[in-house]
Design goal:
alpha/beta, Spore Coat Polysaccharide Biosynthesis Protein SpsA, Chain A, 4-stranded parallel sheet, 4 helices, globular
């Protein structure tokens, strides 16, 4: 995948008040630092903790926050976000920081290459 391609980063959120702000900020910073054209779509899946307020207060460029009024589940969150995605490439990560966000640029360097390359 060339750096000229655009990517939608999808992040489902359900009761992640302790990590959501840091995760979204880290994703944004990594994408900017590596000059990757992107949007970030956070799906608040009916969180009952403070995630809704945290998401509403974030000022991150290219962030689209979508709220499910009730919890619909991980799969429904992904479907909602994929339907809203504006870019041809989609990357999914979790809001709790489980996955190494700093590895996104390396992952994207390999995107689009065949397994035999």
């Amino acid at each position: 995948m060339s750096q000229n391609n655009k990517i939608s980063v999808i992040i489902p959120v359900f009761n992640e008040e302790n990590s959501v702000s840091g995760t979204l900020t880290s994703v944004s910073n990594i994408m900017k630092e590596n000059h990757i054209d992107h949007e970030i779509i956070a799906i608040n899946d009916g969180s009952s903790d403070n995630s809704t307020n945290i998401l509403s207060g974030l000022r991150i460029a290219n962030l689209n926050v979508i709220h499910h009024p009730v919890n619909k589940g991980y799969g429904a969150s992904l479907k909602t976000a994929i339907k809203e995605a504006k870019h041809p490439w989609i990357l999914i990560t979790d809001a709790d920081g489980t996955y190494p966000i700093n590895s996104i640029p390396e992952l994207l360097r390999h995107a689009g290459k065949s397994a035999e390359a």
